Amino acid sequence: MDTSYFLLRQQGLLPRRYFEIDFSDITAKKAATVYRSSALRALLPEDTVVAEGGSELHSAEYSLLGGDLRQFESQVVPKLMARGFDCSEPTLFLSECVLIYLDPQHSDAILNWITANVAHAGILTYEQILPTDRFGQMMIENLRARGLELRGLHAYPTLQSNSQRFLDLGWHSAVAVDLATYHEQLLEPLERERLAKIEFLDEWEEFILLAQHYAFTFAFTSQSSHFAHMDIEKPN
What we know:
Blueprint: H1 4-10, E1 18-22, H2 24-36, H3 38-41, E2 49-51, E3 56-58, E4 62-66, H4 72-82, E5 91-96, H5 104-117, E6 121-128, H6 134-145, H7 159-167, E7 173-178, H8 179-186, H9 189-198, H10 204-211, E8 214-220
Parallel strand pairs: 1-4, 5-6
Antiparallel strand pairs: 2-3, 3-4, 6-8, 7-8
């Protein structure tokens, strides 16, 4: 379960508004899990109400919304607007292995809507890449055996194609870096040590190979000077 909102709230790093979107059956399970946990429930805003038969959480600060991203403009956008989404506000979109599971026509439609409607937009994605080498083919086969299909992988298979899709939409800047490079060159040594203690790896070469097949892409629109100071290619 994604606990980003609760971690940010705990650390006092919340933006003005936080919207979270997933399928309704997933959001229903998350809402139930949150209310079963006293620690998580205590972090919800005081004005939080349960809606849509228990599948959504609404408040002035945090909204957990159920929706099908394949019907983004017709189904998801109206829910966002009803909960106070403001297209004129600087907005950072986070997508962790989401767009890659959509057919390109559906993920492109989401990005087209953002481009046309959100004046100051930034986006950070985390997606699989490199489907044609031996490891990439094995990755696809393993996911397919679990009933998971990376529908957008062949349309955007490389670092260059992941950044170029935003530049082609007219975004001001787009940079993609694989996880191996980010881990080895951009993380501070103390952070690498901390992560190593959390996730001990016996086969370092295997981790590097895996990490080469995942990528961060950060992009922002030409009007988004709000995000110009953010750079995933500089050490933290």
